[in-house]
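pls read this stuff:
=====
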Amino acid sequence: MRSTFLAMATMAAWAGMAPVSAAPPDAELSRTVKEVMRDTGAQGMAVAVIDGGKVLDVQAYGKRNAKGEPLTTDTIMYGASLTKAVFAYTVMQLVDEKRVDLDRSIATYLPRPLPDYVGDDIEDRYADYSALKGDERWRKLTPRILLSHRSGFANFGFLEPDHKLHIHFDPGTRYSYSGDGIILMQFVLEKGLGLDVGDEMRKRVFAPLGMKRTSMMWRADFAGNLADGWTLDGKTEPHDERSKTRAAGSMDTTIADMARLAAAVVRGQGLSAASRAEMVRSQAPIATKSQFPTLQPDLPVADRVPGLGAGIGVVHFEGPQGPGFFKTGHNDSTGNVWVCVERGQRCVVVLSNDVRAEAGFPRIVHAVLGEVGVPWAWEYGDLKLLPVR
């Protein structure tokens, strides 16, 4: 796709910051990816590099299924929780249009109190909100709180002993990752504003950015070039043909499409300068030892990751090259990561249809961006990560 990456080292004039690493030539990056695949056993991986807010390279490696058919840059892969960041980007467009106020209680959007939505009102993509009856703290929930994972919910209500959603701490007071918090924001848009979230994402994000092979639900035309997945024990899993839009993680996409998205977000396309800045800044500090399990106690200040904070749909971090943001996606057979640094509008996106690849993500990100300060230990907890070279 190109002969060499742009050299960015001249940007080292930014006082007090580490020099910006030049992105490696194609051959060097490919060598790193192949080493990671060898060392982790990962069968398929795709990588995109963005520099100066532009897509510079998109490559795919390995297999898309057990038949050994090649993974390509337009192979449909599962986006997993990268969906949350794309959904947040969509919501911020509604903020720009003043259709959503980040700090307005969700109670003011809904025609009825949230706990009153039961039975036919609640499709199986939503949580059971009836358990919130009598806990008026739900009225404190706002779009900002939901999109920055400060709702007080568990990750998902079905993980609770009674399979219902509960508030475990006062909304807005601390960070604890919650997919159901994101899905509640989807519920607010659909029940309160009458929007079809999947259609809004298509019209506002996928179509304008030329993401022709990205969708919030399964499409029949995806079947011809589709990635199955590999689990930790090396078994293959078929691609899940998702039939409902779920803002927490139903997106199918390709590495080429995700490259377009990452480039747009890092350069601020589609948002006002204020909304784009709001999305990626720290809304509140993150004080837990790791992202999972959720609902961990906060650490003493001295033991926390410095500069780590909850953004809108993303995680904010501070590192030797200045501020950045990232988002990961994961299930039993999927590992994804998207990392950007503001300085130089530089990003790397990695999609893998083999969850074992996650152990090598720090090595790939470092090969492209240099040391930027991504809190890998916080993100992946006890996972044994490959050493960075």
Summary: Residues 2 and 126 are 45 Å apart (CA to CA). The chain has nine helices and twelve strands. Residues 1-15 have pLDDT under 50 and may be disordered.
